[in-house]
Specification:
With 400 residues, the protein is mainly β. It is built from four helices and 29 strands. The strands form eight sheets. Strands 1-26-25-24-23 form a five-stranded mixed sheet. It has a four-stranded antiparallel sheet with strand order 2-29-28-27.
């Protein structure tokens, strides 16, 4: 059950927390530049904007940030920070450079409407999920854009409108591909309010949706109490993370709902078959176990080298972790907790392990921002980055 038990929760956290992850950015104000400028200087004039970074992705020297158009007058919905020299930002405020260029953010049916998530694959492509909403109004169909990161040229746009429903909430994506299967990639896109998983095939340029009871929310875990913000959530399937490919070429897909503390898994062979049968394939979905009291999670990511599954815990500014290679069951006792900071208004929004083994986390005050405007007197966004092995060393999630 998800009823808050303060004493047990506090004892558990005090005994399992790790503080090894390092903060590299904290932002009170968000600035965009129409040109390739990386920092604010005395002779440059930029106006802060009422936006909230919600997701990140790292590719080489670019740290991509997603700023959905939750409100009106948001000029840029996908940008990046040049991170060639991270030490330079200790005394300088980074500004965000529109990707691929500013013109692509002018609102039209062919441009970006509202980007909600990006993922860079091993084939150096950037998959850009655009849900088509501005100020919570559906202005365009949700679409999937794909760009070549080495040239910043557009490769493909796929319209997801035929799968979208009136109450769809399409805000996450994971890409299933290896360096030898670039032309046979799959994108997995949760729809957390219609409890479906949308599947897109690069090879066939086609998509379909599948359903399962495990994609739903847990009614006992829908009470989200964040102090200043308190609401009932019915958000289902959201977090998706992929294991390495097995000898047969398929992966384990780890997934969870937002309003739930349960974890589940399914083999990608079932998802990619194209002939999924909700009745015949029902037992191919596995119950992993329970993360524990008050451990509703948001985004997740899997580190291929250590086997650690990371996920952001919504009710505290912490991450959860579990080592899939350890042989331990997925229970509260086998999962660790990684603290970020003590801010009462900051919550982990996105978690990502990059291709060099670094763990990136974006935490923000979105739950408060969603109710009112951006408070530029407060730190609203924090970004952390540390090598995975350093983060988990000596913890219950360590492979040793």
């Amino acid at each position: 059950m998800c009823k808050f038990i303060f004493i047990l929760f506090a004892i558990y956290f005090s005994s399992t927390q790790s503080t090894r992850i390092k903060e590299i950015f904290n932002l009170k104000q968000i600035y965009f530049s129409p040109t390739d400028v990386t920092t604010l200087k005395n002779n440059t004039k930029h106006e802060p904007t009422n936006v909230m970074p919600l997701a990140l992705e790292r590719w080489q020297n670019k740290l991509f940030l997603v700023t959905p158009r939750f409100k009106l007058d948001i000029p840029v919905t996908l940008s990046y920070i040049n991170i060639t020299n991270l030490d330079y930002y200790k005394n300088n405020t980074p500004i965000l450079i529109p990707y691929p260029h500013l013109k692509m953010h002018e609102i039209s049916e062919h441009n970006f409407t509202s980007v909600v998530k990006v993922r860079a694959d091993v084939c150096d492509r950037l998959w850009i999920l655009d849900n088509g909403k501005i100020n919570n109004k559906q202005e365009n169909n949700p679409v999937l854009h794909v760009y070549d990161l080495t040239t910043d040229l557009h490769l493909r746009t796929f319209d997801l409108g035929h799968l979208s429903m009136m109450n769809s909430d399409i805000t996450n994506i994971e890409v299933d591909v290896t360096s030898t299967t670039c032309e046979d990639a799959y994108a997995y896109i949760p729809d957390s309010k219609t409890y479906r998983l949308l599947v897109y095939s690069w090879k066939t340029n086609n998509s379909y949706a599948i359903t399962h009871n495990f994609f739903h929310f847990d009614p006992l875990c829908g009470d989200i109490n964040l102090g200043e913000v308190h609401y009932q959530s019915q958000k289902g399937l959201y977090g998706i993370a992929l294991s390495p490919t097995a000898r047969d070429g398929f992966r384990t897909i780890f997934f969870h709902s937002v309003a739930s503390t349960m974890g589940f898994a399914v083999n990608s062979r079932i998802i990619r078959s194209g002939n999924y049968d909700i009745n015949q394939n029902v037992y191919d979905f596995k119950v992993m176990g329970n993360k524990g009291t008050n451990k509703q999670a948001t985004s997740s990511s899997f580190d291929m080298e250590t086997g650690v599954l990371f996920y952001g815990l919504l009710l505290k500014n912490v991450l959860g972790c579990w080592n899939a290679y350890s042989g331990e069951e997925y229970t509260e006792l086998t999962q660790g907790v990684i603290s970020l900071d003590n801010s009462v208004d900051i919550y982990p929004a996105d978690v990502r392990v990059d291709r060099t083994g670094n763990l990136w986390v974006l935490s923000n005050s979105f739950q408060i921002y969603n109710k009112k405007d951006y408070d530029q007197n407060l730190i609203n966004v924090k970004i952390y980055m540390t090598p995975v092995r350093q983060v988990i060393k000596g913890s219950i999630c360590d492979e040793m």
